[in-house]
Prior knowledge:
Chain A is built from 12 helices and 14 strands. By secondary structure, chain A is an alpha/beta fold. In chain A, the strands form 3 sheets. In chain A, strands 3-2-4-5-7-6-12 form a 7-stranded mixed β-sheet, sandwiched between helices. Chain B has 352 residues and is of the alpha/beta class. Chains A and B meet through helix 3, helix 4 and helix 5 of A and helix 5, helix 6 and helix 13 of B.
Amino acid sequence: MPQLNMVQAINLALREAMARDDRVVILGEDVGKDGGVFRVTDGLYEQFGAERVIDTPLAESAIVGAAIGMAAYGLRPVAEIQFLGFIYAAFDQLLTHAVRLRTRSRGRFSCPLVIRTPYGAGIKAPELHEESSEALFCHQPGLTVVVPPGPYHAKGLLTAALRHPDPVLFLEPTRLYRMIREEVPEEEYTVPLGRARIVRPGNAVTVVAWGSMLQRTLDAVTGYDAEVIDPMTLSPFDSATLLASLAKTGRLVIVHEAPLTGGFGAEIAAIAAAEAMLMLRGPILRVAAPDLPVPLAKLVDHYLPQPEQIRAALDEVLRY
Amino acid sequence: MPESVLQTFTITRLEILDPAGNADPALLPSLSGDELRRLYYLLVLTRTFDARALALQREGRIGTYPSVLGQEAAQVGSAFALERSDWVFPSFREMGLHLTLGYPVHQLFQYWGGDERGQRTPDGMNVFPISVSVGTHLPHAAGAALAARIRGDRIAVATYFGDGATSKGDFHEGLNLAGALRLPVVFICQNNQWAISVPLLRQTAAPTLAQKAVAYGFSGIQVDGNDVLAVYRATREALEKARAGGGPTLIECHTYRMADHTTADDASRYRAPDEIEAWRERDPLLRFERFLARQGLWNEDYAAEMKGKAAGEIDEAVRRFEAIPPPTAAEMFDAVAAELSPALKSQKNRLA
């Protein structure tokens, strides 16, 4: 089995899907000859041609809007937004149309599109290239929001997303693109959407983390009897896995790199408070970025939650 | 070095019928007597629907409604040129389009009556749900056209919007994408002169909306939007060009909204009454009647017969609409996603 990084694994998922199903088409800025600014679509233009790997004008609303029309017509478009921070121009299309098309047409039309985009901080890029605004999207009924943790899961989750009957936002943690190599089967497999995984079992405290914070959390919990959960799909969120873990540990820490206020951690905390109140032995703690725009390279390490902050939260909750 | 002229352009305006109903024989589309009478019936049906919808709104039997009075020719004429296999992306003021395409009339009342089930387009009919968001459906039309080309389907896509939509970013992005990829889309602007209270002069400094196509690399044409034959001819030609791989066209139907923006609006606050009077003589229905009379296809008895037939069709649709039981709370959940998440299932159970 080949050892692949996440860029290669996603490329492989796209290549297989396109070979298997001629309805799958890719569109976006620089996805064709250039193979994407992170090379995620490398070689697909050469293999499948300009009609299936479509370089579009620089226009995010048109990319997502056109993908909606293509999906409704019967294709399976994969729209690439070059960075999550650029999707705001297409927010209108996503919220006004993509997530509402099935409802508005009472099921006559659907919108099975996948929007892939690099997300998250820590790559020393300019403004708007390091956003972590997943909570904005998790608030939208009808949208599935996925954050793959590494190469193996990225391939399986993307394959599942490409078969999902409704729109999926696929947030690829940029910092992980080339950080991790894993064995990735060349044959087709799926990792189901809407299901969390227990990355590391433990009994004293449950820690939920995703994206680039997952690896940092796994490093930070060394020496603690912590159970680490990776939701993989943020919306819909797998509460069952969380609640089963809380029944065992009675303590919860949530780690994310998005700003604290209104971050997705707040939703997880609310689920735990509503459904597991009597199992909890201590306060629910969140380790998150401050409520600031993501700073540029010189300050980004101060912005991102650090291992010592994660450990401080664990120590605090374990005092109860 | 001398300056040189890189580009010049002209915008043509197409009119076939004058207000007295005289036709330019060189421009008349080849339509049979039956087809001309069908067009007339659809204009009458649209006006009848509109009057009934306004009355139902006043009686509290439907909600806020946007009148199409005065724009019947722009809608019926363009829709009459469409093939059943073409895809259509409407805005929200195109009931004449829906009626021409054969959209179930009771479903139109159902939608404006606040029941989303009215938006379920019948199978085999490629009409997108009504878009209340201004102009955002133009990129969808480009996308469907792109998909059709990838699939090898020889169809065209038509999308409808108003003059206000031409100020939006998605107008630019949709037309630009269609132009750059040479997609089979016909952009049909109903320039009715007013975006609620904002007149065209405040919408753009361009003397025509049709000329905006020039910047995207394809042709734009202005047609007299109150002349059903001119609208039909221009749309038909644009659709045939699109299906033959000739790329997009922008059609500006120069028309006028005779009524308020919606039943929640009072146009007398911003519009002079003599402006409306000046357009009354250009009434699209009146003009087509005069033309048909000259062709020997129309008289008062025939008009009365058609109006009676339209009234009967609308009566029946209203009866059908009002006999539909209201949707249940559980139905809210039925089309939000192909499969409900555990959280949604429990929310549904709580409300059902």
